[in-house]
Specification:
Blueprint lengths: L1 E6 L2 H12 L3 E6 L4 E3 L4 E3 L2 H7 L7 E2 L11 H14 L3 E5 L7 H5 L5 E5 L7 E2 L2 H8 L3 E8 L9 E8 L6 H24 L15 E2 L15 H10 L6 E5 L2 E10 L14 E5 L2 E5 L4 E9 L5 E2 H7 L8 E2 L6
Parallel strand pairs: 1-2, 1-6, 2-5, 6-7, 8-11
Antiparallel strand pairs: 3-4, 7-9, 9-10, 12-13, 12-18, 13-16, 14-15, 15-16, 16-17
Helix pairs in contact: 1-6, 5-7
């Protein structure tokens, strides 16, 4: 089976490597253009591009800025259309590619385009299904292999497999589990497709939710929320954008936290108030309980356990974390 693969980050790399190892013929790879990143803002290749460049046998790679023939970069789209036409692919596999596929792309391969989506559709359609599942407190997520159509993750389901969300999972750990599951599931889907055994099932009309893109502004925590909500947000925003609050003008990121079971919230304390600070963590009053933050990071520093962090940054009981951004 001749495959075009379209993907950009590490999540996509796992599927691409699994397809390659399973013996499928990768005739073309599409990935996002190099982007400036890091402190020096130097151009960085995507994870998928780096994987392609590391293979002993050459694989054709294209990095169009757009696939819309009537869009801002019609020359890129026209070149991509020519590249797709010449390889005569049976199917396109899409995993976190980052560009909208117009109808001409969806129609180009013989079997259309299959998407590896990191949720149990129709729950968490959209850009950030892993983050939003943790943030919402879902106990299960999974991977859906979907036949792509013109809608936003609205296509028919081809294969679905669930995966439990551990109370300790953050976005990074759950991402890795789902990337592994997605890689295994897409290989199975294409093996079934090769034998004409893949069955398409329309998505249910009930239970639709949207996983909107994570914005940096969401990093600042509202400490008037419940402790459980805050704990989930800290896990959901690890590693990006990193949950944070402001203390005495300094932005402090929270990387690990737990709700203290059996510890009552003092009636006279305000939300965000520090109740204790020690080697085990910084205890903060919330709407309904006490949240212990055990891994923290100050601006320009490293993420540290509470004991090490407090040796270099003073936090005293009675101080109050808030959402007020520090002065520039």
């Amino acid at each position: 089976m001749r495959i075009i693969f379209a993907g950009t980050p590490e999540f996509a790399c796992e599927a691409l490597a699994r397809l390659h190892d399973a013996g499928f013929e990768i005739v073309l790879v599409l990935t996002q253009p190099d982007r400036p990143a890091g402190r020096g803002m130097k151009l960085q290749a995507s994870a998928v591009k780096r994987w392609v460049q590391g293979q002993p046998a050459p694989i054709t790679l294209a990095q169009p800025r757009s696939l819309r023939l009537d869009g801002k970069y019609p020359e890129d789209a026209a070149a991509a259309r020519a590249a797709i036409a010449v390889v005569r692919a049976d199917v396109m596999v899409v995993a976190a590619y980052g560009l909208i596929l117009p109808q001409w792309v969806l129609d180009a391969p013989r079997l259309g385009c299959l998407n590896i989506h990191a949720s149990l559709l129709p729950r968490w359609r959209g850009a950030a299904p892993i983050h939003r599942a943790i943030e919402a407190g879902d106990q299960e997520t999974g991977v859906t292999i979907m036949q792509m159509d013109a809608g936003l993750d609205t296509g028919a389901m081809l294969l679905v497999q669930g995966l439990g969300i551990s109370p300790n999972d953050n976005t990074e750990s759950l991402h890795d589990k789902l990337a592994d599951l997605g890689g295994r599931l897409i290989v199975e889907a294409l093996q079934l497709a090769a034998g004409g055994q893949l069955q398409a099932v329309p998505q249910p009309l009930e239970g639709i939710t949207y996983a909107h893109k994570i914005e940096k502004r969401e990093a600042l925590l509202d400490l008037t929320q419940s402790a459980a909500t805050l704990e989930r947000r800290i896990r959901a925003f690890n590693p990006f954008p990193g949950a944070a609050a402001v203390l005495a003008g300094d932005t402090i990121k929270f990387w690990r936290a737990a709700v203290l079971a059996g510890v009552a919230r003092p009636a006279d304390a305000q939300a965000g108030q520090v109740l204790a600070a020690g080697p085990e963590g910084v205890d903060i009053c919330t709407l309904d309980a006490v949240l212990r933050v055990s891994r923290l990071q100050k601006a320009g520093g490293k993420a540290l356990g509470a004991a090490d962090f407090l040796r270099g940054f003073e936090i005293r009981p009675g101080m109050v974390f808030n959402q007020i951004s520090p002065a520039p």
